[in-house]
Design goal:
Blueprint lengths: L1 E5 L11 H9 L4 E8 L5 E3 L20 H5 L12 H8 L4 E6 L5 H14 L7 E5 L2 H10 L5 E5 L3 H11 L3 E4 L6 H9 L3 E4 L5 H9 L4 E4 L6
Parallel strand pairs: 1-2, 1-9, 2-4, 4-5, 5-6, 6-7, 7-8, 8-9
Antiparallel strand pairs: 2-3
Helix pairs in contact: 4-5
Length: 225
């Protein structure tokens, strides 16, 4: 079972930063989950929200700010917003990287970055998993490069995720843990899908979800897994 650090180790360090990803690896995470948006100058930056307001000392939409402007911002006075390439270079194949396509029109840029790491830096497509709530972004990813492993995120229903996964030839579904039962986990796995669930932080809930036999748990506290 994969121990997946949510935005790194969000419970301990500023989310989606190199500090957070380092902490996740130090705590034994075997995968990290991160979010990407395109900024105004065209680079993929690792940030969850559509604006920089919550996580930095700046304001404005991510897609309205250039990389130079974003890099000038502080995250909790400790660090800066990284690019996707900076995170991948830091990870250096030490764990699976789950890239969530959070922003619009991120699919093409992500597929290009991944292909670059596979073709030029010795990575494998097995080192990556691309997930999203946005089915159109997953569909674009699949059409651009069917070698990329896809995961369908859902907070609505496991059945809905499986329906979308069938259409996309996805490798995994990513349901909210509140949707899971032992039965629907086994059913999804019998169909050939991995089940990676989010965001599970409380020890009692972690124990229950583990008992269902999931393939991975996404947590702000990877050491609790």
């Amino acid at each position: 079972m994969l121990t997946i650090g949510h935005r790194g180790a969000k419970g301990y360090e500023p989310e989606n930063t190199l500090l957070s990803f380092k902490k996740a690896l130090d705590l034994g995470a075997t995968a990290i989950e991160l979010d990407v948006h395109l900024c105004a100058s065209g680079e993929l930056v690792v940030i969850h929200d559509f604006t920089v307001d919550r996580t930095t000392n700046g304001t404005g939409g991510v897609d309205q700010l250039t990389l130079t402007e974003i890099k000038a911002l502080s995250v909790e006075g400790k660090t800066v917003v990284p690019t996707l390439e900076e995170v991948l270079d830091f990870v250096d194949r030490r764990c699976l990287v789950n890239i969530e396509l959070k922003g619009e029109h991120t699919a093409k840029a992500v597929t290009e970055v991944m292909a670059g790491y596979v073709n030029s830096k010795g990575w494998s497509y097995d080192d990556f998993l691309v997930s999203s709530f946005q089915k159109e972004e997953l569909d674009t990813t699949f059409k651009l490069n069917p070698k990329i492993h896809l995961g369908v995120l859902t907070q609505a229903s496991v059945g809905q995720a499986l329906y979308a996964a069938d259409k996309l030839a996805a490798k995994a579904i990513h349901p909210h843990y509140g949707l899971l039962t032992a039965e629907n986990v086994k059913s999804a796995q019998k169909k050939g899908y991995k089940v990676f669930t989010w965001t599970v932080n409380e020890p009692a809930v972690i124990a229950r979800i583990k008992s269902y036999g999931v393939d991975g748990i996404i947590s702000d506290y990877p050491d609790r897994i």
